Amino acid sequence: QAVEVHRAALGELPIRLRFLIEGEEEAGSQNLGRLLAQEPGLVDGTGALKEGGGVDAAGRPQVLLGNKGIFYCELRARTMSRDAHSGGATHLPNAAWRLVAALRTILADDGRVLVEGFYDRVRRPTEEERAYVRGLPFEAETTKRVYAIERFAFGRGLIGGYTGPGSKTVIPSEATAKIDFRLVPDQDPEEVARLLRAHLDRHGFADIDLRASEGEHPYRGPMDDPLVRAACAAAEEAFGKRPTVVPTSGGTAPMWLVSHTHRLANVTLGAAHHDSRAHAPDEHILLENYWKALRAMTRLYSLYATQA
């Protein structure tokens, strides 16, 4: 729509655009790499404007320069051939508790991952990067209010045994847990899978089945780039507030596949807000933010043409 607005109001675009659209982002973009291997010219360019982004609770636009990677897996424990009456709990093995015991070895109470080697490849931030991140606003109280929490915690999903209404006294023979590890530069999802398998084996959980279902590399573009400067200027014009530049967003997108070959700068000019309820049934944006983001994106083209 921004392209249409620019052409209608200002004339032809001063830069060349390529739209790269794929429909598997929420499933790990599992076929995008294959496509780009066949058509490597699709990633030629000088920068990437990716979906996402928005404004914080103070109305400041956020320009995101990268995203975390992900390793998503399912752990499965099976202790018996079938479920049993819980009267046998004195001597029959419970799959749910077996899986809980395995999970307790993976994550400390403070959220630190205990898998040996997990942090070895993490790119160490420079002192300048540390200082910059310390200066970024963190809306702790707003976040607690939106999610109705008193403190920040770390969790995972687990299912095993009877989960319907009422009571059913049963010892589950099988239990599963789904976990996603968000990765930062330069972690590798395939290596994390190997490390997790070795960790479980080392701690006496070779019987726990590990099924990897999704993996993407993290990506962070450069901060000092003409595209970043143009996006910040466009966002400030449209939203009326100086934007916050966030080096890495909390979510995952296939930007490593798109950007790492040419080390492309990444930016966002989105319309989300602090309570957009991403991934919830009532996920939404505000029309006010939509129109501002549209103006910012329309303005970006000419600003980037002069910056570049």
Would you count the extended β strands for me? 13
Estimate the helix proportion, in percent. Answer: 25-40%
What is the count of helical runs?
9
**CATH superfamily placement of the largest domain:** Zn peptidases
Head-to-tail CA distance between termini: 23 Å
What series of H and E elements makes up the topology? HHEEEEEHHHEEEHEEHEEHEH
What shape does the CA trace take?
elongated
Overall SS class: alpha/beta
Low-confidence stretches: none
How many structural domains in the coordinates? 2
At the first level of CATH, what is the class of the largest domain? Answer: Alpha Beta
What is the radius of gyration computed over CA atoms, rounded to a whole number of angstroms? 23 Å
| CATH fold-level topology of the largest domain | Aminopeptidase
What summary fits the major beta sheet? 6 strands, mixed
Task: Please state the second-level CATH architecture of the largest domain.
Answer: 3-Layer(aba) Sandwich
Mean pLDDT: 91
Proportion of residues in extended strands: 15-25%
